[in-house]
Design goal:
The protein has helices at residues 39-49, 87-95, 104-110, 155-159, 161-167, 169-187, 217-224, and strands at 3-8, 12-18, 29-32, 58-63, 67-68, 71-72, 98-103, 118-124, 128-134, 137-139, 148-150, 153-154, 191-195, 210-212. The protein folds into 2 domains: 3-103, Nucleotidyltransferase, domain 5; 113-212, ATPase, nucleotide binding domain (Nucleotidyltransferase, domain 5). The chain is built from 7 helices and 14 strands. The protein is α/β, with parallel strands linked by helices.
Length: 228
């Protein structure tokens, strides 16, 4: 059973076909997220990329927002009316394959968690995603990024990509550490994983229970979405 794993991000859409063991069958294909990033434009961008991919029998999708039963409930970093958009059914009609859609941080977490105790994932990119796992079981659609953090700003507004560009890497790194320091006593996680496209820009020492993970986990976790 070959799985097409799609990671929809604010700046890029990544696609990769995986075999039954999760081994990639193609180089990761990245296409720019269309602007404006309306539901129709995003679906069309995915459709245009399909011709460059190997054959597949099912599809896993990570989307940066709340997703319930394949339907999008939030899309803060996208344009147009995503609330209520049936992304899963639309992609099934496009690909003629069965589709599962989940929050992108949830999918990334599936690709990295050990399955022991309380584990948390945050993703740093256009915005900030989050996921929580207890003994490997997902608590879906945890949107910590939209919770107030400091001086009226949410976590996402505090460490988003726009702020990284505005204040520079040094100050942004200090903010990331404040986020970690804030999350630790709230969730008391055994491990915190930091992923997303901007995770590679984190510098300096981190607490022993914090790990930086490769952004490709957002793709590789797609195979495990079918095992949950």
């Amino acid at each position: 059973m070959k799985t097409l794993a799609i990671d929809i991000g604010g700046s890029g859409i990544k696609l990769m076909v995986l075999d039954a063991d999760g081994t990639p069958l193609n180089e990761r294909l990245r296409v720019p997220t269309p602007r404006p990033a309306t539901p129709l434009a995003v679906v069309q961008a995915i459709g245009a990329a399909l011709a460059e991919l190997p054959a597949f029998e099912r599809v896993s999708v990570g989307f940066p927002g709340v997703v319930v039963d394949g339907v999008v409930f939030t899309g803060a970093n996208f344009d147009g009316d995503w609330v209520g958009f049936p992304l899963g059914p639309e992609l099934e009609a496009l690909t003629k394959r069965v589709v599962r859609v989940a929050n992108d941080a949830d999918v990334q977490g599936l690709g990295v968690v050990e399955g022991k105790g309380l584990e948390m994932v945050i993703t740093l990119g256009t915005g900030m995603g989050s996921a929580l796992f207890l003994d490997g079981r997902l608590v879906p659609n945890l949107e910590i990024g939209h919770h107030p953090l400091r001086r009226g700003h949410t976590y996402e507004q505090y460490v988003c990509d726009a702020e990284l560009v505005r204040i520079g890497k040094k100050k942004w790194n200090k903010r990331v550490r404040r986020v970690v320091d804030q999350l630790d006593p709230i969730f008391n996680y055994r491990l915190l994983y930091i992923g997303g496209g901007n995770a590679r820009k984190i510098e300096g020492d981190l607490p022993e229970n914090v790990r930086i993970v490769e952004n490709v986990a957002g793709i590789l976790g797609g195979i495990k979405l079918w095992r949950t």
